[in-house]
Design brief:
Blueprint lengths: L10 E5 L5 H11 L3 E4 L3 H7 L4 E7 H4 L5 H8 L9 E5 L9 H10 L2 E5 L4 H41 L3 E6 L4 E4 L1 H6 L10 H7 L5 H14 L3 E8 L5 E12 L5 E10 L1 H23 L5 H5 L2 H51 L4 H27 L8 E3 L1 H7 L1 H8 L3 E7 L6 E3 L1 H17 L5 E12 L9 E10 L6 H6 L17 H11 L3 E7 L3 E9 L23 E5 L3 H13 L3 E5 L2 H9 L6 E5 L7 H11 L5 E5 L14 E3 L4 H14 L10
Parallel strand pairs: 1-2, 1-3, 3-4, 4-5, 12-14, 18-19, 18-20, 20-21, 21-22
Antiparallel strand pairs: 6-7, 6-10, 8-9, 9-10, 11-13, 14-15, 15-17, 16-17
């Protein structure tokens, strides 16, 4: 049996045993841009069918009375993304509308086009190219499905790394689905059955009412489900479990299912119990020392209280740091996947401009991916990895300029009062992120005043002397947002900045607003301070470091892009194959010549061996050699080579500071073109020119 040649071109499989049909078809297939592979008989044709075949060509008379079961079996077994196109050459008058045998082929082959002979060569080539384009779109769909599958795998890895057990409970049937990690938290093996009755039976009898009450409350109100309870393992041992979940409803608003995670809280509860016993022991010792004055007693108690407070702060800090590390890693990887999706959709949109339905579908996918990118920016802000443009900013001018936007956002039922003192120092912040934070605080205040109220916004300067815990000594601008709404109790206030925690109804909030503002404040060496009282209102204060530097004057215009882009030879360095593929397509679509390297060492070898390049674009986060290390090495060989550093992170590790243009991920084609132009224009020793 002949093997299909690996020419790098799409392959067309031909079975035309009569006359010169096979030679003619092979010649026309090559002209259509594919490699022709001819089968000697029908069994060989069926055996050569695989996912790499772009389309098949058959003559109707050669298969009219043949056994087509092997071909039909392969077609029915295709993966979901695949619908292999076939071209059937018929004799004059032998089309499916007049020929039952041809109609039978239509039923067997499914995706088939009939072409009556004799035909013009251009007709055959046109049909072949249409089939080829359709198959290539199927390959693109396969690549996207594989990318999504990889994202799912990474998410499962993140859950495993955090020792979180995933579970899902269908409320109508009370059918429980649990991951292996979740089963292990309840003392079950991965192959053991674990049903909802098993779960209820495992809960300590003194905690069952608590669990049921919280479950009923979540179903009734739509609020998040959160509970800690004891569980008895099959071996009789006692353990603690911490459970968090969200309620999902159908389109009619009826509760449909709970989706959540569980974690083993036994070690933490054991530590807390030991601390409680230690405190009880200390208190007992204090009571026994009756000979000491009352003031002295009031003083091992204050010490105990301070120790408890310090321990609680330490636990909270460790929890937030762990969540931040997990969130940042997942968000960064997902950010890379979104860049691949957006880049390919942008290029795909250019090829379907004449197809209104396809254009609408592409635009819908782009909007969805952009919403995902916005969510990852919030996650990166919480993990302190968002790219910030920190500059001196006049906060009085910033707040005043947002007046119209704030009034539209809170609506006519809420009045806004501002107290902006003149002569305040500038703050060292990212203006866009502060605007987003202020808008988030205003919307939160509006939601806390459903019947209307007053929103007060003020600015003042404060001096911090020494170390204030969450703030270093110095001058700060305090942006204060106060409402007279529903407020929060002490327990809710403790969780207010936790990620995904929300007091809003299901579907009306992500629970990332305050956590994003908290992450922003920490990145800016400031702090977010919340005070609230139930039924009175809430005050959110954003403490931002002041600076004596004056705000920069805005540039009149950015560097214009060249009207006629010259062809450049570009070295693209990225270890992620999907990102590299997408970026190469965007660059080639701009008219440039691209050489791809998948590691820093490979790129360095290309430059050392005398390869000429007009500009180098490199990812920062790569194994073995980072983009910053690569740039430093390249500078010793080609000091004048323009270099652009692409990254989704803001804070590079110590020693990695390099003076390079930054291209934030995910980026689109226009942003890519603009950064290349800026890098070339800023290098006075290398004017814009065509690649040699």
């Amino acid at each position: 049996m002949a093997a299909i040649p690996n020419s790098g071109q799409p392959k067309a499989l031909i079975y035309a045993p009569t006359g010169r049909d096979a030679l003619v078809a092979a010649s026309l297939v090559n002209e259509a841009g594919a490699t022709a592979v001819t089968a000697q008989d029908l069994p060989m044709f069926a055996a050569l069918l695989d996912d790499d075949v772009a389309f098949g060509i058959l003559t109707e008379e050669a298969v009219r009375s043949s056994d087509l079961k092997p071909i039909a079996a392969w077609i029915s077994a295709q993966p979901s993304w695949s619908d292999l196109p076939f071209i059937v050459l018929t004799t004059r008058g032998g089309g499916p509308e007049r020929n039952p045998a041809a109609a039978r082929l239509s039923e067997v082959l499914a995706n088939v086009t009939f072409l009556e002979r004799p035909f013009h060569a251009t007709s055959f080539i046109s049909i072949a190219r249409t089939a080829l384009r359709g198959r290539l779109r199927q390959y693109q769909a396969r690549a996207h499905l594989e990318a999504l599958s990889e994202g799912e795998r990474r998410l499962q890895g993140a859950l495993a790394a955090g020792r979180l057990g995933a579970w899902e409970l269908e409320l109508f049937s009370m059918r429980l689905s649990a991951s292996d990690t979740c089963k292990a938290i309840f003392g079950r093996g991965p192959n053991e059955e674990f049903t909802y009755p098993d779960l209820i039976a495992s809960i300590h009898r003194d905690d069952r009412e608590l669990v049921q009450t919280n479950l009923d409350w979540t179903i009734e109100t739509g609020r998040d489900y959160s509970v800690e309870h004891r569980t008895i393992w099959p071996d009789g041992s006692l353990h603690w479990v911490e459970v968090h979940a969200q309620l999902y409803a159908d389109r009619y608003g009826s509760a449909k299912k709970l989706v959540g995670v569980s974690s083993d809280a036994t070690a933490r509860k054991t530590t807390e119990e030991n601390l409680r016993r230690l405190n009880e022991s200390l208190e007992e010792r204090v009571r026994e020392r009756t000979g000491e004055v009352h003031a002295a007693h009031r003083s091992l108690l204050e010490e105990v209280a301070q120790r408890e407070q310090a321990q609680e702060q330490l636990r909270h800090s460790q929890k937030m740091e762990a969540i931040g590390q997990l969130t940042g890693g997942v968000a960064h990887d997902f950010n890379n996947l979104l860049m691949v999706v957006l880049g390919n959709l942008e290029l795909l949109g250019k090829h379907v401009t004449g197809d209104r339905k396809a254009s609408r579908l592409v635009e819908g996918a782009v909007q969805g991916a952009r919403r995902g990118a916005a969510l990852t920016q919030r996650l990166l802000a919480f993990a302190r990895r968002q790219d910030l443009q920190v500059k001196p900013v006049d906060l009085v001018e910033l707040v005043s300029g947002m007046n119209d936007l704030l009034r539209r956002s809170v609506g006519s039922s809420v009045s806004i009062e501002t107290r902006l003192l003149p002569g305040l120092q500038p703050a060292l912040v990212d203006a866009n992120q502060v605007e987003l934070a202020l808008l988030n605080l205003a919307v939160n205040a509006r939601d806390a005043m459903p019947d209307g109220g007053v929103l007060s916004i003020s600015l003042r300067e404060e001096q911090v002397v020494g170390d204030a815990g969450d703030l270093d000594g110095g001058t700060y601008l305090v942006l204060s947002v106060t409402d007279n709404g529903s407020g929060m109790d002490a327990e809710t206030l403790k969780k207010a900045v936790d990620p995904f925690f929300s007091t809003k109804e299901l579907g009306k909030g992500t629970g990332l607003g305050l956590s994003m503002i908290h992450g922003l404040a920490v990145q800016l060496n400031g702090a977010l301070r919340l005070t609230s009282k139930l039924g009175v209102g809430t005050t959110a204060e954003l403490w931002l470091p002041a600076t004596e530097r004056r705000p920069e004057q805005p540039a009149e215009t950015d560097l214009p892009l060249p009207q006629t882009a010259s062809k450049l030879k570009i070295l693209l360095v990225d270890d992620d194959t999907l990102i590299a593929m997408s970026s190469v397509e965007m660059l080639e679509d701009l008219g440039h010549e691209v050489v791809e390297a998948n590691s820093g060492s490979q790129a360095l070898e290309l430059i050392r061996t005398g390869g000429h390049f007009d500009v180098m674009i490199t990812d920062y986060s790569m194994p073995g050699m980072t983009g910053a290390q690569l740039a430093q090495a390249v500078r010793t060989i080609r000091p004048t080579l323009p270099i652009v550093l692409a990254t989704g992170y803001a804070d590079l590790p110590a020693g990695a500071e390099v003076d390079l243009p930054r291209l934030g991920k995910p980026y689109n084609q226009d942003q890519l073109a603009r950064e290349i132009h800026k890098a070339m224009a800023s290098d006075t020793d290398m004017p814009l020119k065509s690649a040699s």
